[in-house]
Amino acid sequence: MAVPNHVKKTVKNTFLYTIVTLALVWALLPIVWMVMSSVKTEAGMFSMPPKFFFKPNFETFKFMFSEEGNFFSFLSNSVIASVLSTIISLVLGTLGGFALARGNFKNEKALSFWIISTRMAPIPAVILPLYLMFSNLGLIGTMPGLLFAYTTFNLPFALWMMMVFFKEVPQALEEAAMIDGCSRFQAFWRIALPPVAPGLVATGILCLMFSWNDFMFASVFSGHDTQTVPVAASLLITQNGIAWGQAMATGTVIITPMVIAGLAVRKYLVQGLSMGAVK
Amino acid sequence: MRTNAEYSKLKDSNQTNYKKEKSTSFLNLLNIKKYKTEHWMILPSIIILAIISIFPFLYLIYASFMDFMISSDQPTFNGITNWKKVLINDTFWASWGRTLIFAVVGLLLEVMIGVGIALAIYELPKGRNLVVTLWMIPIFVAPIVAGLLGRFLLNSTYGLYAWLLSLVGIDVQILGDVKTALAAVILMDVWEWTPLITMIVLAGLQSLPKEPLEAAQVDGANYMQRLIKVVFPLVSRTILVALLIRSMDILRFVDTIKITTEGGPADSTKVIGFYLMEVAFKFQDFGAAAALGLTMLFATIFLGKQFVNFMTKGDE
Amino acid sequence: MKRDILFKIIVFLAIISMVLTACSSTSSTNSQKPSDTKAKNAENINTEVQVDAPFDGWVEGLPKITAPEGFDWKQFEGVELNVITENTPPSSALAANINLFEDVTGIKVNIEQSDLGTVVEKTSLDFNAKSAKYHVIYADPYQILAKHSQHFVDLNAFIDEKTMPAIPGGLEDFIPSQLEVNGYMGDTEALYALPYDNPTMVLAYRKDVFEKYKDEFMADKGFDWTPGPNLTWEQYYEAAKWITEKAAAGEITEVKYGAGHQAKQHDSLMNDYSNILAGYGGDYFEDTELGAVGKSNPGKSAMTSDAAKKSAELYKKIIDVSAPGSTSWDWSGLGEGFAAGDIAMAPEWHEFSSMFENPDSSKVVGKVSWASLPKGDVRQAHSYGGTGIGINKYGTDEEKKAAWLFLVWATSPQAQYMILKSEVGGSTPTRHSVYDIEEVQKGMQAGTEESKQMPNLLPMKVTLEAWKEENVYMRPKVPQWPQIDTFIFTELSKMLADQQTPEETVEEIAKQSDQATGN
Fold first, then answer.
1. N-terminal to C-terminal alpha carbon distance within chain A
2. Looking at residue B76, what is its pLDDT?
3. For the region Disordered, what residue ranges are annotated (chain C) (predicted)?
4. Closest in A137, A219, A239 to C118, CB measured
């Protein structure tokens, strides 16, 4: 019994779209529900059965961004710390990653493994020594301290990623450029860097995400004036219960910029990941 | 320490001399053949990484032999007590067991669903970009938000998911029942990270040369055969890389568990990372936490070593 | 090859700086110089005469904040104080009104609020580093004070210093049992903290349900089920079971379950169980003197006692007929469940009253009554969970003095009254004098205007009763407590999940406890 080709195709497509739709519901329902809850009244948020249609109410956001809610300061701390730490990690990571890829260090394997291993330490165990160090350097509760803390996990990551990306780029062009009179650094800057741009963007966005989302370091190393948005979210878990309205609104604020940034560079992210991971 | 005279001698020496000199220098640690631009490029990174890794590592070793539990200003030496406390302890091994379950089940689900969705998206005739865009959103959700969301959705009083489950007649306390709590926590991880696997696999699929697929088609191989023979070998490496990165992270990150179940009920979600947090911050037993942290570090390094070996195998 | 040398020097410097960092952190024993507690210009201060502090809006009938004549309230102008505290109502209220203090003293106060776990974590890191990043510390008696008392300033140094402001109303104005448990550790030589908040467990119940079905229950079971000092835990169990069954059968529609508990694997589970354990005359250690000032070595566990076994069995029975959500709820989950109208009775911290009376988040406004907890064979026992605030001894003298001014203000009857009235606060005072004023007395009566303004006063009548020595339960105050607490609630959680019997549970707790304390 032969099934006509177009029937087969329709069946297949229906099947595919069903799977994809189910997957999207699974992935997005929590987020949609969070955003919806953030614009509900408190009573509406807890109503059973849940309400899917309601008049949005922006009081929570208004409160958060009022002077009393003080949310701008959390937000600006988060932006400053994560953007600067991403830039630092990218700059150092690109230079170092290139060096690792081209440097012919004798114990290159050991060196690069040591670099990635600095990101493996279990955080609760290393917090005490890091705290002692930071407190001796006067960094606790300061913005440089937070930057430094974020760099501890972003830099090894950036170094490693960039090393992998640079290894993908053939060396011949650089060598040719150097014969033509370019310095080593110029060869790096003009010849080797442009092809890894997608990788750079992918690394950057992941670094940004790690630091933007970080809670463990931020909660310990930030002070009254340097608390970030994830810390603000944790402050909503109070002795008398969780302020769910604000928690949902804060969650919305935390994920929005990352989602926008991530989606804006989606193309590069995919390209970058395929560069690094697929040979 | 070198004297100035030695330094100037070094300066005047030619390349061969210099090489000999170098083998006794402490810089040999870095095993640098000759000083090139590259060394200057990596130096700042190495200094920063050295600062953040060497002292904490040495301190962990030191702390693992000290008693922080006494009521005095300074910890005192207590031999291998901390190590005994950690290693001869049911909770420690049970937590490792749970971590293993968490990692194996979680990663298995992530790979199966992730690859499945990637293939489905790859075959989609239309709307591929839109689907990928929407599907990858959970990756960007902060773990603390994922935890809060999990707690909100699964709450038996007003949670959306609890309500949906009760509609189909499943009336369990998801986070309060030993049978479901671990599954729920694993599913939160799966929710957040499956899209990453999909992305990587999809990237792999898209970069595949068209020829082998078409060649296989001409051979008359069916879809499954094509998958197994052509696609999987090409993306398996990718998947393994993703897996190793994820498994190292699973050991480290416990934000979601901290917000939702705090290890309970009946310890059913106490993974090793959360146990470490409990010893370090709840018990404030930094000595035992250091010993525990070192065991975790060794485990992670072992995992990482496999990962690197695998990564570099193809290079040579 | 100049670059070689430069390169080496840089690496060398990096290593040296690392070693220095490492050394300084391990060898920086703080020189314990005796703290200077005198006010500036002490010679111009007349300690014989007390003058009111320049705060506005004194409340009649409460002791005022005073200082000796000639004391300059602005002498610490420019000092910046970091306060770390749990995210509790009094802290929110102080943070909202901190300008009152800042305007008078010129001291800048940063109040940092986190959940208790984070407070414990940051405090212990700060003490270990001796860095005094936080000057004023929320000294939870069990998780912080018992373990870290050696890092706090002995406040007697300030109390005895006549040139500094005194504690308004004196130490006698604090509730004595609270001063003992929050302020001291080991003995009453040194005072480390002043009582700051005082949540205590009492029974919240739905008076609509209990009135409506009273006769039916009486006919069925033969006793009056109205919660109060005469109800026993067995009767509580009977009542909870009865309501849960009737609700399941659809005969009771007001609620879904007879009782709700905070039985998540969490500190809350230990507190919840302690009410019953102590009611049956049990305790966690053989030494019965650990609740008040505490001890550094608690001695042997008493969890193998008959009282412990019996209470564990009863607790398991109770949870089995309670709202099934109980095993996933800590105190806030329970509070939300009760406020949603699902539960007929719940042992809960008295300060949740404001949540139950808040029409935005509660469906049970006006339907809640408060009673003392049921009694066991031996007595009634109410778990107490209050905390004090103290001063980090690693700060500079000036910071410590400024911190003292803050303590005086924050724990004063005037500030406690302000906290009680505050919209963001609403916690209950730690001072006798505040409870004596008429407005507060009225607030304790249901239905009065004052009780609507200050809903946390509604449970105060039973709470004041619960604070009496014979009715309160103070858990052991020992440095090992955070660990032992974890053993207790973990093993109890296993019991509730049917992984072990009550008998195995108490024996396991005893075993682990003795291991941890070395007994």
1. 43
2. 83
3. 499-519
4. A219
Q: What is the mean pLDDT of residues A240-245?
A: 82
Q: How confident is the model at residue C4 (pLDDT cuts 50, 70, 90)?
A: low
Q: What is the pLDDT of residue A278?
A: 45
Which among A48, A237, A241 has the least Cβ separation from residue C335?
A: A241
Helix (H, G, I), strand (E, B) or coil at C196: strand
CATH superfamily membership of A70-276:
MetI-like (1.10.3720.10)
pLDDT score at C61:
87
User: CA torsion sign, B76 to B78 to B83 to B85?
Assistant: negative
A3-15 pLDDT, tens digit per residue, is 677 887 888 888 8
- Computed on alpha carbons and rounded to an integer, the radius of gyration of chain C in Å comes to 25
- For C501, phi then psi, to 5°, come to -80, 160
Nearest residue of chain B to residue A249 (CA atoms):
B145
Give the residue from C392, C294, C472, C318 showing the smallest Cα distance to C82: C392
C70 exposed, middle or buried (CB, 10 Å; 0-12, 13-18, 19+)?
middle
Residues of chain B positioned with their CB less than 8 A from the CB of A185: 37, 41
Q: Which of C28, C327, C477 to mutate to test the interface with B (most CBs of B within 10 A)?
A: C327
Q: Which two tokens stand for residue A74?
A: 């959390």
* Cα pseudo-dihedral A185, A187, A188, A193, rounded to 10: 150
**Is C6 in the B-facing interface, judged by CB distances under 8 Å?**
no
Asked whether residue C396 carries a pLDDT value surpassing 60, the answer given is: yes
> C253 to each of A215, C214, C249, C341, C343, how far by Cα in Å?
43, 15, 9, 10, 11
Spell out the domain ranges in chain A. Answer: 5-60, 70-276
Question: What does the DSSP assignment read for A93-150?
Answer: HHHHHHHHHHS--TTHHHHHHHHHHTT-S-HHHHHHHHHHHHHHTT-TTSHHHHHHHH
Cα-Cα-Cα-Cα dihedral sign, residues B229, B234, B238, B244: positive
**pLDDT tier at C32 (50, 70, 90 boundaries)?**
very low
Specify the pLDDT at position C9. Answer: 61
Q: Which of C25, C112, C336 lies closest to A241 in CB terms?
A: C336
Nearest to residue B138, comparing CAs of B120, B113, B105?
B113
Cβ within 8 Å, pair B123-A17: no
Instruction: Please answer yes or no on whether B312 and A109 come within 8 Å at the CB atom.
Output: yes
* Spatial separation of the C-alpha atoms in residues C221 and C243, rounded to whole Å: 12
